[in-house]
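Re: the 339-residue chain
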Amino acid sequence: MSDQDAFFAGLDVGGTTIKSIIVDDRGETVGDMVEVRSLVKDGYEATFGQLELAMTELAKSAGIEVSQIRGIGLDVPAPSSDGVIWGKANLAEDWVGRDIRDRFSARAGVPVYMTNDGNAAALGEYAMRRKHIGSLLFVAPGTGLGGGLVLPGGRAYEGENGLALEVGHITVPFREDDGDLPECSCGLRGCVEAWVSLVALRRRVQFEIGKEEWAEHPLTTEDAPIEEKAFQLRDYASEGDPLATKIFEQQGMILGYALADLVRVFDPGLVVIGGGLAEASFRDKYMDWILEGFDSRAWSVYRRSPLDADKITTRFEWATGGDSAAALGMAFTAREMFR
């Protein structure tokens, strides 16, 4: 490895940590993934310092000099357009309205590409599937419901203003038992994120344990905050618990229903499901529920070709990148753009 070799860094800025990866000119990862605190609540300047720390640690792990990093891919947990943060999300106020991309590029002395975390994770999943040359639609149930669309060739579709693919905020016609559309964290009602997210799980647990049929269930009788009970749901579902199974089955089917409309619009060919459920022991059942919901809404041609009954027109897969997907996606994108 000479001092003339070029390397490209992917920096994934989260609410609490920055995950970072470096790749060489061939697209191979070099060294280890590095994780440092993000300090986003302390402002963008404080976070810039942590980004520089991450790059120093990356270079050390890869056995190179920081000066050999010729381009950076940076993702942020907030809406942005052409490098400018449009909304606060989980960031400090001073991020909003700032050209973060160009400011960090000037500080680092190399070109920077910036996008949001959903697009970054989608790009990472695309990068890991080197034999896949078509489109890829990515959705990830987490605290909310994020996602992204990668076009053939590996470029994220971001829209005119960088605000495309807010997949959690399309409307689905599902109602609570009392007939109400659930309120979403965005302020609207009936969004799919109001059903498919950690926040939605909290509401669903609270709603269900109020029913007589679950009066003796541990989640009803134990004295714990609703946030903790929602976190326990995955463990209960892994054991086949009827209450947890009911909630996740409903969530999976509603997600599949919403995906049918997204597939009808974008026809990606491949849908990748990320988030924590990608590692759950009951994920095969969850995928079956997604497909059931999808089949209830999608036209038959989006499942199998009318010309060849054995050809699946929309494949569903679990994400494989885990916590490193977004950083990897940013590193690969920087390599494609700046080499």
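The chain has two domains: 7-110, 136-319.
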